[in-house]
Write a structure and sequence with these properties.
Structural class: alpha+beta
Number of strands: 5
Oligomer: single chain
Helix content: 10-25%
Order of helices and strands: EEEEEHH
Shape: globular
Largest sheet: 5 strands, antiparallel
Strand content: 25-35%
Length: 80
Amino acid sequence: MIKKYHDKTDSLYVVIRDIPAVDTVEYMEDVMVDLGDDGMAVGYDIQFSSDHKDIIDMIERGEMKYYPKQTMSQVQFGVR
């Protein structure tokens, strides 16, 4: 996992898999997910990251995973 922080914009990009992104979707407010050609997350772009420490912690612990067509409530309750 690689993290790239931009202090001027308080944005954090977290690389999950080092492959090219082919699409980007809004995961939740202030969080975009870059997707690989398999539809799975390759990275998370977190705006106002200082306000989203809980999301960053979930990503670091491997608890935040993106599955196609998944809603945030499904993520919180571990539903695929």
